[in-house]
Amino acid sequence: MKKTKPKKKADLPAQIAKSLRDAILTGELTADDRLPSETDLAETFDVSRPTVREALKRLAAQSLIRTERGAFGGAFVRRLSYDEAQAQHASTSTLLLSINDVAFSVACEARYALETSVTALACARRSDDDLAKMREEIARQGSPDLSDEAFCTSDVALHRALVDAAGNPILSYQLAGAVEAMQPLMNMITFTARSRERIVALHTSLTDAVEARDMAAANAVLADLEAYTLELGQGVIALRARTRRPGAA
Question: Rounded CA gap, 78 and 63, in Å?
Fold first, then answer.
């Protein structure tokens, strides 16, 4: 790495971490590459070793590097798996939707538009195992003893199986935020009002369409799910607004 000096004194570890992260993103540093020593990095960035150490801690917290002890130890660029990336993406999406004021209709539109984008591949590539996972969740959802929380978890698992049936890990990563972040947040709003029987019927129709490799039918079911979710969400939100008004019964 070429010698450089942070532009501002404020938050030097953040600036150094960003510089190293950029080197990883551009390919200057690749998976399993060993980073320069703390001493070399301190000289490169013209800072103290504790400042470098703090920067490395930030990179480790982002799962970008790993550290090893011993004579051949040090800090190395971490090889991130798709599963880890999906989990991080879902967590970031959840925070984004929770912290920001995103309209229910906007989240609903985005969530189903993203899922519809994979139905063609899912219908073409689905395996018997994919279908078995979807039907297993449908059977679970039909149990009268299933808690609301478990039903919501199963709902997410079914749609996760549909996305994974497309057989494209990059799409699975990209849709992790839609299925594992947006859907649970929507479920939190609608679960008290929705009909489990209707959801199970729609999920069954969706799985049947995927099994038949009928993309048009699968997309039609997703459109019905979107319309039903939007109807429920708007109804629940309107009811909450009415009950919060002063003097409301």
Answer: 7
